[in-house]
Amino acid sequence: xxxQLQVATxxxxxxxxxxxxxKRRFAVEAAEARxxxxxxxxxxxxxxxxxxxxxxxxxxxxxxxxEVKAARVEIDRLTVRTPVDGEILQVNIRPGEYAPSGVTLExxxxxxxxxxxxxxxxxxxxDAWRYxxxxxx
Length: 137
Fold this sequence. Notes:
Layout: H1 2-10, H2 18-47, H3 51-78, E1 87-91, E2 109-112
Helix pairs in contact: 1-2
């Protein structure tokens, strides 16, 4: 990278924009900074860890754990749940369609429990005398 920067700065015949020249200059500076940091890290590792470094590492771990917990809470907050157990019987809305808030004439999703069915029967008053509530056939 350093050689590319030197070639770019010395070259008078090659057309290079100031932006490209700055990109190369900043890339060299960033690489040098990473090298200095890596050497410092190596020196610290060779010398052994000391209490402030361990405290910083523990604080970093606690910070990352808090971020993970916050992400889980956000996922939990964005998850749609039903107030009762059941199965989706009918969907009256499509992905991307606007879902109005409040009460609608037709429900957006019809939810039901198929384990226990409730039957509604209309019995004519002339046949009501035949009805026996606990009788099974």
